[in-house]
Each structure stands twice: as structure tokens, then as C-alpha cells.
Design a protein that fits this description.
Strands 1, 4, 5, 8, 9, 10, 12 and 13 form an 8-stranded mixed sheet that branches. 20% of the residues lie in helices and 23% in strands. It is of the alpha+beta class and 308 residues long. The structure holds ligand MTE.
């Protein structure tokens, strides 16, 4: 017997239909069209041969429905329901990611090449949003380090900058000025190379839905969710700390590091507790979002009140 994840799209849908569906999805205005798809059709976007990754927390998963309809993706609006309704206009093929800057071998990688670069794993991570809610998501991807080592970072590469697609025709939110587009985020090089930092292409065994940052995003589980930039087109290694979108928007509210820290409140609200989506009572927030054992040593000797 085959598991659903072993079935290749070509086995369940004639490739014509599969291709048509993709095209149709890209044209579809949004969630209402998506919702009409029978569940069996959605299975066409399942990954085959997924390995359970080393990092899997043993907590109840946030339902697929919530993970894909309660989103922050300001390129498609600022309400939580906006991305699921409006991200149908994002075209995820063709797609390429430029990897350049302080590297020996700058390259542009087609998404197809990235998908074959390293074994895809399923990892179950907590995602803690700076807005004090959290989710538990089974992501699909591989360590960002796998990609970075292919471009051979030079000795002077100290930081990594991620840039989201800039295209107001596909991303209606970019016609407004709610943020300074394109969305940019950054990590220190040792954070970017840490095995927990996941180059992410899917969730729940499926290709990433557009609203979750298709076709490729970063997930950095010990930092607030906004560090996990979506739909990225460029990864640049730099000698100096890059500017980041939320830090530009509110330097006193959003620092460069943004490690989950229950002891450093946001100026407008506490970070001591969080609400797991789907639950009523709040739970205490854990230092580094529960990943202290793996990452605390990256910040040894640093004043985390100052470098928040
Ligand atoms: N990336 C881009 N390009 N634009 C955004 O608005 N929002 C961030 C992050 N990445 C955002 C983004 C925030 S605030 C969070 S909490 C997470 O995406 C949400 O990821 P999810 O919708 O997959 O849960």
C-alpha cells in the first residue's frame, strides 16, 4: 500500500489536468475558488518521499485550515483573512532566487533546482508571532545552510538579507505604503547557517499555499514570525547588518534580532504569554520560543534587552 505522500501527481491526475489546474489556480481570484477544489485534487500538490526531520516538537498541530487562512502577508492586505482571499494573483512559476553578495560563486537558482538540492524533510516547529499568538506547523524544507554553502560565502560575509518579490501587479498590497516594499529581512550569518533555519517550500506535506509564502520562504523558529520572509527572490550575503522592513517601520518596536523573549515586552504589549491559535487560555512564552537549548549559545555574552 502506498501512503498518500508516495503518490506522485502524475499518478492521480493526467499531467494536462495538473498543468491546467496550476494555471487556473494562478488565475483564480482567491480563496473562494480554492475552496471549491475537491480535497482529492489538492492532493496533486503533495510531496513524495518526505523524511521526518530531526526537529519535530511533540505538540498538537494547528489545523491546516487555520495555518492557511489566518496569515500575515501584508503584500496581500493587513487583515488575517486577506492573504488567503487575495494571494491567488501571485504567480509562482517561473521563479528564481538570486544568491549573491559576499560569496565566491554568486548564482541564480531556478526553483526547480532548489527543490532538488537536498532531501526535503518535514519539521514540526512552533511559530510565534510578535502579535502574541502562535501555531504549530509541519513545514517542508531543508536547512538554508545547504543552499548557502553552494555559493561559498567569503570570510567577510557577516549577515544574510532576504528580499521578497516586488510586483504590485501580483501583490496588490504593494500599491499602498503600509510598509517599505519590497519586504526585507535579515539574519546574522551564524543564525542563517544554524541547522534549525529552514528554507521552506511546503507545509502539511503539500506545496506551500501562496498565502504562506509560495514558492519559497524562510522559517526561523526561535525568532518572531516576521523574521521568516515569504516569497523570496533574493538572498544577499553582506558585510554589514542589512536594513529590515519592520525595523524601518518601527525601530523601537522591532529590533534586528527579534529573538522570542518573554522578558522583553513590545512597547505596546507584553510578550510574556501567547495564545495558541484554536485555544482559549494563554500559555507562557518560552525563551527563544522553546529552542534555547539549540540556539542560546549564539548569543552568549550579548545583552538581549539591548539587542532585542
Ligand atoms: N513575509 C512577507 N513578505 N510579508 C509579510 O507581511 N509577515 C511575517 C512573516 N513573513 C510577512 C512575511 C509575519 S508578521 C508572520 S507572523 C509570518 O510571516 C506569518 O507566516 P504564516 O502566515 O505562514 O503563518
Amino acid at each position: 500500500m502506498k501512503k498518500a505522500s508516495d503518490i506522485r501527481p502524475s499518478e492521480i491526475t493526467p499531467s494536462e489536468v495538473f498543468r491546467d489546474r496550476r494555471r487556473w489556480l494562478q488565475l483564480a481570484a482567491g480563496a473562494s475558488a480554492l475552496a471549491l477544489l475537491p480535497r482529492g485534487v489538492a492532493a496533486a500538490d503533495k510531496f513524495a518521499d518526505l523524511k521526518p526531520g530531526a526537529y519535530r516538537i511533540d505538540e498538537k498541530l494547528t489545523p491546516y485550515e487555520s495555518v492557511t487562512t489566518y496569515n500575515n502577508f501584508y503584500e496581500f492586505g493587513t487583515d488575517k483573512e486577506d492573504p488567503a482571499k487575495r494571494a491567488g494573483s501571485l504567480r509562482t512559476r517561473p521563479w528564481a532566487v538570486v544568491v549573491d553578495g559576499a560569496v565566491g560563486k554568486p548564482r541564480t537558482f531556478a526553483i526547480e533546482e532548489i527543490l532538488k538540492m537536498a532531501p526535503l524533510e518535514e519539521r514540526i516547529y512552533r511559530l510565534r508571532c510578535v502579535e502574541a499568538w502562535s501555531m504549530v506547523v509541519p513545514w517542508v524544507g531543508f536547512p538554508l545552510a545547504e543552499l548557502l554553502k553552494r555559493v561559498e560565502p567569503t570570510g567577510s560575509a557577516k549577515f544574510v538579507e532576504f528580499t521578497t518579490l516586488l510586483d504590485p501587479t501580483q501583490m496588490p498590497g504593494q500599491r499602498g505604503t503600509v510598509l517599505d516594499w519590497p519586504y526585507r529581512e535579515g539574519l546574522r550569518i551564524d543564525e542563517a547557517m544554524h541547522p534549525l533555519t529552514l528554507l521552506t517550500v511546503g507545509l502539511y506535506g503539500e506545496v506551500l499555499p501562496n498565502q504562506n509564502g509560495a514558492p519559497i520562504r524562510i522559517v526561523v523558529p526561535w525568532k518572531y514570525g516576521f523574521k521568516s520572509a515569504k516569497s523570496i527572490v533574493r538572498i544577499r550575503l553582506t558585510e554589514t547588518q542589512p536594513e529590515t522592513t519592520w525595523n524601518l517601520a518601527g525601530p523601537k518596536e522591532y529590533g534586528f534580532y527579534s529573538n522570542v523573549n518573554p522578558d522583553v515586552d513590545h512597547p505596546r504589549w507584553s510578550q510574556a504569554k501567547e495564545r495558541r491559535i484554536g485555544e482559549f487560555f494563554k500559555r507562557p512564552t518560552l525563551p527563544f520560543n522553546g529552542y534555547a537549548e539549540q540556539v542560546a549559545q549564539l548569543y552568549a555574552g550579548m545583552d538581549l534587552q539591548r539587542y532585542f
